[in-house]
Amino acid sequence: MQIPLSCIPTKRSEEWWLQRHTEKLAEKTKSANPIDLIFIGDSIVHAWELEGKSAWQAHFSHLSTLNLGYAGDRTEHALWRIQNGELDNVNAKFVVLLIGTNNAGHRHDKPEEIASGIKSLIRLIRDKVPNCKIVLTAIFPRSRNKHKRMRKIVDTTNDIIRTFADDNSVIWFNINANFLDADGVLHETVMPDLLHPNALQYEIWGKTLGKLLRSFAKTGTL
């Protein structure tokens, strides 16, 4: 059986991407305190540094954090980054994983292929940071309504990957209902391009995630 592209660690060639990887390796090494919380993902995670900056400050500034979101990344790109040092020698309490929308949007991968890439990431994260809790985040909805092709790919992928969670070492985290109206429609007032959340949605995400992390933290420091 052929290994799907979503599972084959792949290095990107863009200069900014390579530079960000170098910078993140340095940021991890220079951290004065042990890292509490790591985010891994694509542009939606990357944008915590932009659209979500205020929410990040409000909900995570008291923690030692590392944002490993890269715009445009698919699962295979995150696999390469982790294999090449981004999680080496860290002992984070939590790793938040949100990725897969670009597998759906760029290449129209099958849900099973995207899920396989995400499962590979979970295994690799567990290998690199064995004591962390992985917050497996449902891929955010995209496209206006639930009948669109990419929405269906995302929804089906989420149905698969939720089975990877055990609510202990891998925690399922799904806030997608916050983004949709009663009919399942995604509006530009929530995601202006029907893909990337606006600042208010980052606030909802940060508040909800912060509450979840505190409920699982054994030391009471989160």
The CATH C-level class name = Alpha Beta
What overall geometry do the principal axes of the alpha carbons give?
Answer: globular
Strand content: 5-15%
Strand tally, please? 5
- Order of strands, main sheet, comes to 2-1-3-4-5
CA radius of gyration? 16 Å
Write down the overall mean pLDDT.
Answer: 94
The largest sheet, given as strand count, sense and whether it forms a barrel, is: 5 strands, parallel
Helix content: 40-55%
Structure annotation, total helices: 8
GO molecular function, one term: hydrolase activity, acting on ester bonds
Family: Belongs to the 'GDSL' lipolytic enzyme family. Platelet-activating factor acetylhydrolase IB beta/gamma subunits subfamily.
Protein name: Lipolytic enzyme, G-D-S-L
Pfam families: Lipase_GDSL_2
Features:
222 residues, single chain, Rossmann fold, alpha/beta
Descriptive overview:
The protein has 222 residues and is of the alpha/beta class. A 5-stranded parallel β-sheet has the order 2-1-3-4-5. Helices cover 43% and strands 11% of the residues. It is globular and about 45 Å long. α7 links the parallel β4 and β5 (170-173). The chain has one domain (5-216): Rossmann fold (3-Layer(aba) Sandwich).
